[in-house]
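User: Predict the structure for this protein chain, please.
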Amino acid sequence: MPVEAIRGVIAPLLTPFNDDLSIAYDLYVAHAKWLLEQGCAGIAPFGTTGEALSVGIDERIAAIRSLVDAGIDPSLMIPGTGLSNVTDTARLSRACLDIGCAGVMVLPPFYYKAVTEDGLYRYFVEFLETLGTDARIYLYHIPQIAIVGVPPTLAARLHAAFPENFVGIKDSSGDWENTKALFDIDGLIVYPGSEIPLLDALELGGPGCISATANLNSKAIAKVVKLVGDGEDEAARELHEGIKRFRQIVDGYGPIPAQKRLLALSSGDSRWANVRPPLLELSEEKGKELSDALTRIEAVNQ
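Assistant: Here is the predicted structure, written as structure tokens:
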């Protein structure tokens, strides 16, 4: 039976830290609730934007449980669970699925670089066998970070062999030709990892996007999806130009520290600026510079 996609914009949830770099659960829960109120169709805890590889397995599980304990529906969550070995990835993924998450988003094993597609296929099959046949897996392709990618041919093989388990993919490559090739795989759910190609993805039947800057701009991105659904294509294109400019400006400052600094400035809570090493905080001065640039964009779009 085909898996129903979460339709709309999904926010890869930022992970706020206290000054001692423990997870700030109060900010975490409040931000997740705010994103859903702003129009996000779902959230993806512990993707790249959530500093996932700087957060331990037990920390991730506890944080996701804190969201559920606060009343957030786990069926709206697709947590990132990819690590560099089957055992840990399966353990974290199993915990998320047992909590009731809609699925898990899994990186390829990223330590060994010169691996073959057959080797990656073997890894994912072993992962599925360890995880269990109720698994709902979204592959995660981000080769500019992981170096090791998930090419369309591998996604097609896994989906063809296990269509009820390897159900989708997030393509954060920024390569539209690669994303477009994924849409040719019958029945695979495809989320671009940015709002930049959102209109093209929706035109090909995609359900939406998973975008880092949804942490700040989810309301506008969600409105683009709605406008397209309502047949208001011209209005959607006009608004889309604005959200693309927003994304491009934030990217120029480093999306994770930049968005955290902006949240620290807007909320008055300095903890939002904290990042875990090896990342460094964006300075308050640079944050105000970025805020001013985004304010000018918003003024033009009004």
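The radius of gyration is 18 Å.
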